[in-house]
Amino acid sequence: MPASLDPFFSNTVQVMLDEEGFSWPRRFTTRQLDSVVNSHLFYMMARSSAGCCLTFFTTGSNIGFTCRRYSPSSLGGSRPLGQNIALKEYGRPFDMSDSFDISVDGKFLAPLPIKKGMLRACWDNPEKKQVLVKFFFPMCHQVGIKDFSCDQDMLPIKKPSGKILCLGDSIMQGFMAKRPAFGLVPLLCEHLGVEIVNQGICGFGYDPSILDGMEELGLFDCILVELGTNDWNFSPDLPSLERRIASFYSRLTTLFPSIPIFTMTPIWRSDLDELKPCGSFAELSDLIAQEAETYVQVKVIDGLSVSPHKRGYYTDGFLHPNVEGFRYLSEHLVPLLKPVLRI
């Protein structure tokens, strides 16, 4: 077991160590978390470990660790966080299937359920050859680990030079991918060979307050923004939404004045022909594009052009991509992002 797990973490903003020795990977700064503290859903989803990963080389064939899952009693019951909100607002529940994922030289083991206590995983390696292990944290839940060990030495990999910041909602967070390694951000990491900080939050929209404290994140090769589909659902009118979007891009471009920013308008959804209080789906997409394009460093990606338009690509047949849907998205985004990366 290494003296510290920090060299083995990737795609994290910081790793918090509690008094009992549990490491809790975070993908938001403390100030960012404070900005969403008034919403149980946003706060808990922002504290989840979506996209966080441990990566290392080893000649071993098994790992073990102690797991702790954060589940505040104030939320009550055994129903996963967010289900009540989904039932009320969407008329359908979210599938919050979740687990740890482990790949060994690109081959995935069976998902490892989230359970309190000691967890183990093993793989065949009779010749003790060096293998690359990727240990993916759950996408919906906040978990801590301690006493992480391997039966042979763990060696850190060389950190990639490229780095991307992804801001978004449940689609960016990876909801309904069923396994944390198969969401949009891990797939982009795999295709591009970079580190990516996943700042997707289930249910989130254009709220400039999430940018508070973002200057503490450092620099990135580029930023990808995927927001708007929740704004279309819940915004009472178009003018107030326009003000939020304008404020969001004004602050984001001020924080990162020389970094390329890609704005993806909302992806396909089965109800896009409906009319909402803030207008049509097309009006929302046009508004986002118009506001973003006022800044020379921002390039707009048409979400409809990079997402599949068939229900079979979506776990709920409605909005949230399944594994094939996320693969489709990632394959169409990679050639757009790759030219600006240091790889």
Helix-strand blueprint:
Blueprint lengths: L8 E2 L3 E4 L5 E4 L3 H6 L4 H8 L5 E6 L3 E9 L12 H7 L11 E4 L2 E2 L8 E6 L8 E6 L5 E9 L3 E3 L6 E6 L1 H4 L10 H9 L2 E6 L21 E5 L2 H6 L3 H18 L5 E4 L10 E2 L2 E2 H12 L5 E4 L1 H4 L16 H15 L6
Parallel strand pairs: 12-13, 12-14, 14-15, 15-18
Antiparallel strand pairs: 1-4, 2-3, 4-9, 4-11, 5-8, 5-10, 6-7, 6-9, 16-17
Structural features:
343 residues, alpha+beta, six-stranded antiparallel sheet, five-stranded parallel sheet, 18 strands, 24% strand
At a glance:
With 343 residues, the protein is an alpha+beta fold. It is built from ten helices and 18 strands.
Spell the H/E element sequence: EEEHHEEHEEEEEEEHHEEHHEEEHEHH
Question: How many separate helices?
Answer: 10
Query: C-alpha Rg, in Å?
Result: 20 Å
Question: What is the general shape?
Answer: globular
Largest sheet: 6 strands, antiparallel
Low-pLDDT parts are: 73-83
Instruction: Indicate the percent of residues in helices.
Output: 25-40%
Amino-to-carboxy terminus distance? 31 Å
The total beta strand count reads: 18
DSSP strand (E) fraction? Answer: 15-25%
Classify the secondary structure makeup into a structural class.
alpha+beta
Round the mean pLDDT to the nearest integer and report it: 91
